[in-house]
């Protein structure tokens, strides 16, 4: 159906300046992507609000659902800084979000979605000098949902929302900081607890074949910037 | 296209930074692409003005490529149905002789038409129904323009009515074939009826005969209906109408005028051209076409489908349209013009699903393709058009009414709900001053129909649309006008709607934000509209005076200190021993439950900050959760069945109860926790189903709403999530098997090729090597386990409904009204209904939704499930059981 109008589910031409992936490879990965980058969030929007909107694009009867949400955090203050990743179980669900949710309002802001190569350790943190997203450092306008004026005035505004500030105070980095959300259904083979222990020792992420495959894909993906502009 | 894909400033900057050659970079168009695009864009400014210029451009285009031209026509016709009359005109002028005609010149238009036909044949072969139907529209116009012979057009339509007579034809297939035939007749009747009135009559009768066989299905999916039998008249046609009924009404009406009135329904710009006389140009005879049988999807899987294959066929139910406006605002169902308008709007909505913004724009531009005077001019429009008598409708209301109709289709709309919701948002954004009022009026109309029998699933979707819409428009709703309804019984559908809409709004925003939008009368806790406080967690052991406060704190501290799961398990064992000896009452069985509750609630407490915190907590303590669920101490039976169902069902119920208690003020979190407990295989879908029927009604409800067994939309959401999970797992497992099969086949083929290549003279028989690799064996085993689980979940749900709606004397909290509300007299006296009656009524509604939305799955297991749940009622006189069985039989196709 691309003859008369263009489809809204096309990825943007975002290309990381540091990424060593060529266009071809990136586009192949995006064609299977189950992850969305979501931008222009209010700093105060919760994961549950995000869940509520994005769950409307799920297809549980097709083996889908929301796998996990990774909130973008200010590197220094560990507070939300206005972006997140939403990971589904299927590619079709990510496409549906591009078509139906991107460009609509969440928490009274128009949010923007983009297909993403997938979460990689460290990407949950902002890469701006102040710790937040780069775009907030260049911003000239007053944006109450994103800490008011650009970088300087943020502090005052954030004081007002101690709850939000504290929510992610315990956020970890390094391997295993982010949960996998649960993998494919697996036969409980005599429930060998030994095997489970072993798995947990490695990473919470390799629950299920699907995840293992995804991790492998990920390691092939060259290093890239932690967040988008 | 004028459409800008992304919002201004972000995109701009990124584009500058991007020094790569973008893969979607505008490429130089080839001459063929230029002519194709010119055809596709035909009429965007003014079709009449452009016609002759475009004709010349097409004729002058060299080198001439008929396939390119006909493809452009196919794209145009199947993707821009509103322009079909103009494409018929374009093809008509292309039938004129060229400037320098040769003796035996075949008109260019004819060459294009012949090639176009091949494309149509392709759509039919693929059973691409919408494309085939729109091509038929095109052919019908060409028949009226005398470019296609009436005989061959009738034959084409008859090959579609023939589908209706097929033995065991599916409802979905019959419905689509009927639309193809009926709409072809509608457009072409002016020529077809005079040619053969018998044939056109036969087409109408064939459609009538078919729809007469679907009366009970219609009853089951009517948007506004009573619970009583389908023999009572359906809702009056002024409120809602079934699609094929509307088609038949239209055809009958047009037939009376020998289809002359069709000229009032759609433009025929080609009419100004005098038809060719047959000795100059014989009309084209469409070749015969046969609609191929439906593809059976089982082929690739046949070996593993020994039991329980579930070919999921949706779109099998009759479709209804509802009326929200009076006839002077939007056309009524008996008006043939209305049929054309509604179906065109539906086609636009369906075709442009990939781009809701473009879709919204095209919808608002629709009047330009219809006859002048059909719709009121835009406010402030400078062009004055004489309103056509009996028309002059309001475009925005007509569009919204049609979108709402298709959104509220039962058991489900063909696209995801959120598509229609976002589409309405876009339309509002394009023209707030005209669309806003139409949306407001639609909401009021639907709201008032809540007490007239609006189906419970339609009501749930209404609340969903309402909340998302409000979230996009600043939560501005005049709640005040519904304040008088606070005097209705607490479970009255209108009050249930208010509560539900508010709950959904809070999920999208936050409690204080929504509270602020309500009038004082609705803010008070006694109004039961909005909870007193936000949806925060409720930790039973928080209170320092609670007898188990200290025990819970100790566990919390272990979690906080990231103690190993095994250490927590050891600690719980100790705690169990301590409690055992200290419990004065000596409830031995309760100590296990108590420990389970403390542990689960403490874990959720750790994970209460956010969805991610929940996932981290669960993942870190999976072994603990498994131990609490009794999965670790499982028997060999549990291991071999692959599901947790034979281990410790009570333990799993208690885990669910602890979670529901912890999140009793936040039902969204209850659903999320349940979903992830299924995902991590702590509980099975069947556990959720059982739990919901036992405890669901008590979760997060204001105490007023408790009482006897009932299901509301929230409990239905839990059930649906569980059943969908079970179904989704089967789908995923089947995919896996298919994939492994294919890999094995490919590998075998490769090996064979290699063997043959080496010219080894060993006789080779590929069939003799059924190398079932261990992965495939595992996958097949998983598949069969999951099939069992699916059947179990469905069976448990059915059983739950049966026990709620035809409760046995031994039932725990039977609803005394479960059986009484199904009678017609009861419905008539609904003004006097109280909580229990409305509760029972809603539960019946969810039973209907269960049967119709899972019909394809239920049908697979119909016999077993019937025996398990209904056999006990054989020969028993029980109005509840009779109603249950009737609905069941319609859904599983056993009533015909």
Automatic annotation (TrEMBL), chain A:
Residues 34-118 form the RRM domain. One of its GO terms (molecular function) is RNA cap binding. Keywords: mRNA processing, mRNA splicing, Nucleus, RNA-binding. It comes from Coprinopsis marcescibilis (Agaric fungus). Pfam families: RRM_1. Residues 134-144, 156-170, 194-205 have a biased composition (Basic and acidic residues). Belongs to the RRM NCBP2 family. Residues 124-229 are annotated as: Disordered. InterPro entries: NCBP2 (IPR027157), NCBP2_RRM (IPR034148), Nucleotide-bd_a/b_plait_sf (IPR012677), RBD_domain_sf (IPR035979), RRM_dom (IPR000504). One of its GO terms (biological process) is mRNA cis splicing, via spliceosome. PANTHER family: 20 KD NUCLEAR CAP BINDING PROTEIN, NUCLEAR CAP-BINDING PROTEIN SUBUNIT 2. GO terms for cellular component: nuclear cap binding complex; nucleus. The keyword RNA-binding applies. It is found in: Nucleus. This is Nuclear cap-binding protein subunit 2. It comes from the Eukaryota. SMART domains: RRM.
From TrEMBL, chain B:
It comes from Coprinopsis marcescibilis (Agaric fungus). Residues 1-30 are annotated as: Disordered. Keywords: Coiled coil. SUPFAM superfamilies: ARM repeat. The keyword Coiled coil applies. Residues 723-750 form a coiled coil. GO terms for biological process: mRNA export from nucleus; nuclear-transcribed mRNA catabolic process, nonsense-mediated decay. This is Cap binding protein 80-PB.
